[in-house]
Design a protein that fits this description.
Length: 365
């Protein structure tokens, strides 16, 4: 009798759980509802899938015929799994690239101030040296800052001295820029917009860059920060009221972020749709790969990690860590040769790079 009751309860849990997971898939696949509530639902996709996996295993042991339902739900959402986990043995990251290939580097450098060690000049110098000498044709930075180093030079001057052409947002002067693009090749046009937000410097910067055989558009973007600091909740775990307040702050930040992203992504979509050139989008989306922003860009461009990444590709170097919010996307004119997340840990993000090659243009008959 007890077993029968337990089985019935498990089935009552399974049905609504699977229905909820399907709803989350529907929102993620179709982007039919752009309300902030939809943002929370899409954010829960990994947990919903994990629950389906647990239900599948449980039913496989108890009543195998009922395991079919959670299995089907998992298979329907397989593309979301591939946004998190990839294996690309046919596209290993090349040690060397051909002259016709383009290496693109993207990094949120957190103002060259290591969050847990703000006064460590040695680490700051090491980070500036790393980004200056990283071998790439195009470098896109978010939260760039022209901090001064013991050499009496600032980060902007040092990086610029070895990285050719550049585009930057002009918040008073280049030394206050937060979004910067450095290019080995000439930049013929640039445009920037900084969005009003909650104390951050979020916006977009694009540059039209003339390569030897074509012109491309590179869009460097940082969307509104969600302001999630899980560590604060963990540190307050012994104080129930404080932990509760921190949790509420996270939820409020997420809500603000979802609302902001719904507006910001419209402008990024327009830049992509109106681009007269092959297009790359790089930057810090401040959103996991199941949300509104990722879905809209994926409708237009390919994601570099999904096409050539390996492993989990997490890019956040602080709590909650197990997320990928930094991305590169590319238009169909490109072939991707490799993608890599570099675990260089002197910022609160990890840098990413990808190698591309423009496809040969078909000649008219």
């Amino acid at each position: 009798m007890l077993k029968k009751v337990a089985t019935s309860l498990l089935w009552l849990i399974s049905l609504p759980w699977c229905i909820y997971t399907l709803l989350a898939y529907l929102l993620g696949y179709t982007i039919v509802w752009e309300h902030w509530i939809a943002g929370f639902i899409m954010l829960s996709i990994p947990l919903a899938q994990l629950g389906c996996l647990v239900l599948f295993v449980a039913w496989l042991c108890i009543r195998p015929t009922r395991s079919v339902l959670p299995l089907v739900i998992l298979l329907v959402g397989w593309p979301f799994v591939l946004r998190t986990l990839q294996y690309s043995p046919l596209k290993p990251y090349p040690k060397h690239r051909k002259a016709s290939e383009l290496k693109v580097f993207s990094y949120n450098v957190c103002g060259f101030s290591i969050p847990q060690d703000l006064e460590n000049i040695e680490k700051r110098t090491k980070l500036v040296d790393y980004v200056t000498n990283f071998d790439a044709d195009i470098k896109c930075f978010q939260e760039f800052s022209a901090v001064w180093l013991p050499s009496n030079k600032n980060a902007y001057e040092i990086v610029a001295s070895k990285n050719g052409y550049r585009a930057f947002d002009t918040q008073g002067s280049i030394y206050n820029s937060k979004l910067v693009i450095f290019s080995k090749y000439p930049i013929i046009k640039q445009k920037v917009k900084i969005w009003p937000d909650y104390g951050q410097s979020n916006g977009y910067l694009y540059a039209d860059i003339v390569l030897p055989n074509d012109t491309i558009r590179v869009i460097n973007v940082q969307l509104q920060s969600m302001g999630i600091r899980v560590g604060r909740v963990a540190r307050a775990i012994d104080d129930y009221n404080k932990a509760q307040d921190e949790s509420k702050d996270i939820l409020r930040s997420l809500k603000r972020g979802f609302i902001a992203h719904a507006e910001e992504i419209k402008e990024i979509e327009r830049l992509i749709d109106e681009s007269p050139y092959p297009t790359l989008v790089c930057g810090d989306l401040n959103e996991m790969p199941y949300g509104l922003v990722y879905g809209h860009i994926s409708d237009r461009l390919y994601n570099a990690f999904e096409e050539a990444g390996n492993g989990l590709g997490f890019t956040l170097n602080r709590s909650p860590r197990w997320v990928r919010i930094d991305n590169q996307f590319f238009s169909e004119e490109f072939d991707i040769k490799g993608f890599k997340t570099h675990h260089f840990d002197l910022s609160d993000h990890f840098p990413i790079s990808a190698i591309y090659e423009l496809k040969s243009k078909k000649k008219g008959l």
